[in-house]
Amino acid sequence: MSTRSPRPLALLVALLALLLAACGAPQAPAAAPTTAPAAQAEAPAAQPAAEQVEISYFTFSAAPDHLDSLDQMVAAFEQANPGIAVSVETAPFDQYFTKLQTLIAGGTAPDVFELNYENFVSYASRGALADLTPMAAAEPGFAERFYPRAYQAFSQDGKQYGLPQSFSNVVLFYNKELFDAAGVAYPSPDWTWEDELEAAQQLTDPAAGVWGSYSPVQFWEFYKTAAQSGCGVLGADGAVTINQPGCVESLTWMVDKINTHQIAPTDADMAGVSDGDLFKQGKIAMLRTGIWMFGAFQDAPFEWDIALEPGNTQKAHHFFANAVAVSATSDQQEAAWKWAQFFTSSPTAATIRVDASWELPALNDQALFDSWLAQTPPASREVVFQALDTLVTPPVIEQQAQMQDAVNQLLEQAKLGQLTPQEALDEAKAEIEALLQ
Asked: Is 88 within 8 Å of 6 (Cβ atoms)?
C-alpha cells in the first residue's frame, strides 16, 4: 500500500436501473496584561483553536494514472474545509479488497473507502458501512444531484450506504497504424468474433512481436464474453448456469485465441508486461480494456481509436460503477461524510474527473458529458455511450470475492490446458453452488 500525504492544492437513468485525531491542541491563554491587580479587568477566557481532523481515504481507481487529479480534488476540498485533512492511501485493484478486508478485520478501517458495485453488496450486508441516509437527508436536494437509479444502486433495505462516484465500461481499443500497415479495415459496429479473428490473423506478426488481439482470461472478462453468447454465470432465477453451452463456447473462444489461433500472447510472451503497456508499445493491435485507460494512452506514439466489441450471438459490454462508503467504525463520520459528498457530487471534483478522463461522474449534469465528448483522443468517444445499449452488469452474490477467486483459478487452468473449458465450468458451477448454500 502506498500512502500519499494530503496536499493543499444524463441517458443513464434507465440503464443504471439494472444495477443495482484530532491533531491540534488548544492554544495557551493570552498573556495577562501588566497592569496593577486592582485596576485589572477580568480577561475573557481564551478560546481553543479549532481542531484539525484527519481522515483516511482508501482507493484503487486513482493509481497510477489519476493521482494528480485526486490531489487536485483533495486540495480543493481542504481549501473549502480548512479543519479537515485527507490522507490518501492506494492499492492496485488485484490487492485492494484483500487489504481492505484485513484493515476492517483489524479495527483500522479507512474512514472513507472505494467500493465497486459487485463488492458493495457483501460489505453492506455485514455491517461494515455507515448509514449515510440521515446526513444525505439533512442536505436538501442532495440525492437529486445523482441519477436516481445510480443513487439507489448503492442502497440496501431503504438505507443509503454508498455514494456513486463514477461509471465506466469496456470497449475495443485498436491501433490504427497497425491496421493501415496491414491493409485491414477498422472494426465496424457489426463485427462478430469471426470478423475479429480474421482481422487479428492478418495483424499478427510473430517476428515483430505483434499480436492481433488480446483480452484477459479472468472472471470479469468471462461473464461479459459469455453474455455475448447469450449465457450468464447466474440465471434469472438465481440458478448457477455457468456451465451451459453458450458459456462453454465463450471460454473456448477466449483460450483458443491464445493456444489454437495464436493471435493473442501467452503469459510467457507478455513477460510480465501489462496488456496496456504492450498496446502502448504497438505490440497489440486490438485490446479490450476500460475507458479508464484513455488517460494512460493519451501520449501513445501512434493513432488509436475505440469501437464496440465484436459479439457472437449478440453484443454485450461491461458496465462498472464505483462508489465511496464511510466506515461504520469511523470516529470522524461527519468529516468523512463531507469528503464523500464533495468527492462524488461537487462540480469541482466532477470537472477535474471529466478533464482527466477518469471514468465519468454519475451526476445529473449533461453539460459534463458534452465536455467529455469533445475531448480527443479517442475520436469516437460516442462509442462509450453506444455500448450502454448492450450493458451487462456483474453477477453478484454475498460471497463475491470467494466466487471470483474460485472462477479465476479454474479459468486459469483452462487457459493452461490443465482442464477443458467444459471441465473448468462444471467445477465452477459446483463451487458457486456451495457458496450459495
From this structure: yes
Cβ atoms within 10 Å of 13's Cβ, excluding its own: 12
Q: With b meaning 16 or more CB within 10 Å and e meaning fewer, what string describes 137-157?
A: eeeeebbebbbebbbbbbbbe
Which residues are registered as beta bridge partners of 378?
none
C-alpha cell at 88: 490518501
Of 87, 67, 73, the residue nearest 3 (C-alpha): 87
Calculate the dihedral angle through the C-alpha atoms of 161, 167, 172, 177, rounding to the nearest 10 degrees: -140
* Predicted model pTM: 0.77
Cα 348–chain centre separation: 20
Cα dihedral sign for 351, 357, 358, 360? positive
Residue 102 belongs to what H/E stretch?
A: helix 93-105
Distance CA 247, CA 237 (A): 17
Q: Do 339 and 110 contact (CB within 8 A), yes or no?
A: no
Question: What string of pLDDT tens digits covers the 437 residues of the chain?
Answer: 444 433 333 344 334 344 443 333 333 333 333 333 333 333 444 444 457 999 999 999 999 989 999 999 999 999 999 999 999 999 999 899 999 999 999 999 999 999 998 899 889 999 999 999 999 999 999 999 997 767 888 999 999 999 999 988 999 999 999 999 999 999 999 999 999 999 999 999 999 999 999 999 999 999 999 999 999 999 999 999 999 999 999 999 999 999 999 999 999 999 999 999 999 999 999 999 999 899 899 999 999 999 999 999 999 999 888 999 999 999 999 999 999 999 999 999 999 999 988 888 989 888 888 988 999 999 999 999 899 899 898 999 989 989 999 999 999 999 999 999 999 999 999 999 999 99
3-state secondary structure of 168: strand
Taking the C-alpha atoms of residue 286 and residue 213, their distance in angstroms, rounded to an integer, is 5
List the grid coordinates of 223. 461473464
Instruction: Give the residue from 168, 163, 86 showing the smallest Cα distance to 124.
Output: 163
The helix (run of H) or strand (run of E) holding residue 75 is helix 67-80
Strand order in the sheet with 320-326: 2-4, 84-90, 53-59, 112-116, 320-326, 163-168
